[in-house]
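pasting input
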Amino acid sequence: MAYSKDSLTIDAEKVANQLCEVILSQIGGTLKKSGAVIGISGGIDSSVCAALCAKALGPQKVLGVMMPEKESSGDSEKLARKLGEKFGFETIKEDITRGLAGLGCYSERNEAIKQVFPEFDESWKCKIIIPTNILEKKTFNVFSLCIENSAGEKKTKRMPLSAYLQIVAASNFKQRLRMTTLYYHAEKKNWAVIGTGNKDEHEQGFFVKYGDGGADLKPIGHLFKMQVFQLAEYLGVPEDIINRTPTTDTYSSEVTQEEFFFGLDFYRMDMLWHALEQNIPAKEVAKVLDLTIEQVETGYANIKRKILATEYLRMEPLMADMQK
Amino acid sequence: MPTIDQNTARGDIKNFIIDSFMFGQKDQTFSDSDSFMEKGIVDSTGILEMTSFIEEKYEFAIEDDEMTPENLDSIDNLVQFISKKLS
């Protein structure tokens, strides 16, 4: 099929039905489990996964777990409850703030932030961002720290390595504690844990190893974000979830996934990536996406760099193969 | 601010890469023009580490808009960039 603006359009009904069959067979057949536990954040990916599981297994075999902490957006819980009501599955809430505090998530992170901004305290909000003009300029995906006070004063600075590593390591407690909470509920019921990452997140490495990456199956791990949107429409995911800007729900200051990781809007990123996978000539892609050939090539290089740089996240623990 | 002898800088950077990213295994081969990212020698965290090394060793700050592959993604590019910054 020729490359066009519709290249990522799917037959959502057909894909949803196929995925329901796969979910049923993987959970019941391969994993020998009898239900699905899903962390629901009010975001589109977890909503699509929960809707698919409810359709595949029946809503009484699905448990949605909301895991807010003191820095989460209030909207997340409201939307997650709405999702459970819409698809008829049970939802429970586990506030993980005390657990995170006990692990040192906030204190260790704040100590590292103070290395960069000594004036920082808990009255400020923080986030990590990358350059978002990646098609305009060939740039490395280097992270900057951004803090903001209640008066709206913002400060941004590129981080030294030690501060960056400490902030990320401490923040990753959030995803890892969520994963252990999900496994607690799953093991209690002999159910499976559903990973909610899409292809963009899985292959470009936008997940925490043994955090949100820790799951028994990942039903939408092969789908581009643009295709997840189509499934959400077909499945009837509430509009306010579909229209919500995808965020990380990791930092106290609201940060979009574009600012934090991808550096590009989902439509152009997915279309570029699809073209890269299909070996479509840059000239043809540039015409369809209204970009220059150089911008297409810059986009290709950025995607390739992310995939390469995050390879270890997708690796299983390495075994010593003594046969070789 | 230190001046730069290009051959010394080339050697310093190569040693830094071998020590930091290859556990000192000098038999690992890569050429001065190889892209660190494409060859999988250094990832984006490694670039931050390299940046800190260059800033400390040559006593200048690398600005955000200088964090590009043209400046940092091979030994050749780095030597050229350092020479330009110190000239």
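fyi Chain B has a mean pLDDT of 85.
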